[in-house]
Amino acid sequence: MLSDALVVGGGPAGLYAAWRLAQSGHEVVVCEEHERIGDPPHCTGVVSAGIFDEFALPRDTILNPLNAVAFVSPSGLQVRYAPARLEAVAIDRPAFDRRLAAQAAAAGAQIRLGTRVDSLSFSSTGVHACTNTGAVAARLVVLASGAAYRLHRALDLGVPSTYLHTAQRELPASAVGDVEVHFGTRVAPGGFAWAVPVARAEGPGVRVGVMATHQAPGWYQAMLDRLMPRWGIERRGEDQPRLKFLPLRALQRTYADRLLVVGDAAGLVKPTTGGGIYYSVLSAALAAEVAAPALTLNRLQASALRQYQSRWRRRLAGEFQAQQLLRQLAQRMSDRQIDALFELALTDGVMPIVARTASFNQHRPLISALLRHAPARRIFWPARTAP
């Protein structure tokens, strides 16, 4: 049987695309390799407070608000930021994914668990997927396989050229505080480490993680050691972090004949923080907006689907460019420069700029303002010393 759309991957991007396409009256099959949606959890689960209204997402998966964040420099300087309005919340990520799956299924999507897509082949009439449970055929495929690029290589889509490694885990904690973000070459080279408080019925906890250029498990353990006394974290021998490859740059091409690529699979992740849920859902929405009429008209060639990439670039290209510039500058900074930036934030009136321009999902206004700020510019681009 030839379905209208095959979605490869049962994460937020794939499930949201499946829901939107099923709502449009199309027959959708979702292939998810794991036996249960949401397992294992794939990220820290911090999202913008506004995402639920923007995309009609289930609010009952919110665990707690995140009202303030403490940024910590290599030498221990702290800058605390508490936005005037709620910007972010912590969600129960497995429950979030399962609610999206229920939403998609209620709209008519068929979700096949324990079904790993091993290969995709294309013909003039459709897409044929070879899976561990049998063949699946559809007129269009939405590739939402997350940060796993085996199928990309086979389809000559390439892989993201910029990436980091992450290690993270949620642990019980008896003395949780505000969000903490730690920087430094001896904390998480090329990235940062974090602690995010979570409130569950069974008791409070903390999500500890790092993103770094290398040796993420070691940096995770060091971050955990720093947090344990203050947060009341009890070390347990089996508490190993989950490791993940984190793309930080979009693919050059996110469409082809009968194919659209969304979310982490397309490399659509914030280059600054590695956050991917918002861009996953946004790209899935844009993909569905293009795919639904294309399926109805049976216009599924690349020339018809390319408008998907045009749409996400129109929304995100400027944002990505600004975030990638800041990431490049940050990765070149020494611990001394990072400390100098914190000292500037504590003394020079940088925080009013942050309060005026910061937004959880749009970092470009803040980045532009910082790079126009003369004292900050001198830190990002220190004067060359004459030989």
% residues in beta strands:
25-35%
- Nearest-angstrom radius of gyration? 22 Å
Separation, N- and C-terminal Cα atoms: 72 Å
Give the full name of the CATH homologous superfamily of the largest domain: FAD/NAD(P)-binding domain
Query: What is the CATH level 1 assignment of the largest domain?
Result: Alpha Beta
Number of helices: 11
Average predicted local confidence, pLDDT: 95
Instruction: Tell me about the largest β-sheet.
Output: 8 strands, mixed
**Count of domains:** 3
Shape: globular
Characteristics:
387 residues, alpha/beta, FAD/NAD(P)-binding domain, 18 strands
Outline the structure in words.
This protein is of the alpha/beta class and about 375 residues long. It folds into three domains: about 1-65 and about 95-160 and about 250-320, FAD/NAD(P)-binding domain; about 165-245; about 330-380, no CATH class. It has helices spanning about 10-25, 50-55, 95-105, 150-155, 215-230, 275-295, 300-330, 335-345, 350-355, 365-370, 375-380, and strands spanning about 1-10, 30, 45-50, 60-65, 70, 80, 90, 110-115, 115-120, 125-130, 135-145, 165-170, 180, 190-200, 205-210, 240-245, 255, 260. Strands 1, 2, 8, 9, 10, 11, 17 and 18 form an eight-stranded mixed sheet that branches. Strands 6-5-13-14-15-12-16 form a seven-stranded mixed sheet, with helices on both faces. Strands 3-7-4 form a three-stranded antiparallel sheet. Strand 9 (about 115-120) and strand 10 (about 125-130) form a beta hairpin. Helix 1 (about 10-25) packs parallel to helix 6 (about 275-295). The radius of gyration is 22 Å and the shape is globular. The N and C termini lie far apart (about 70 Å).
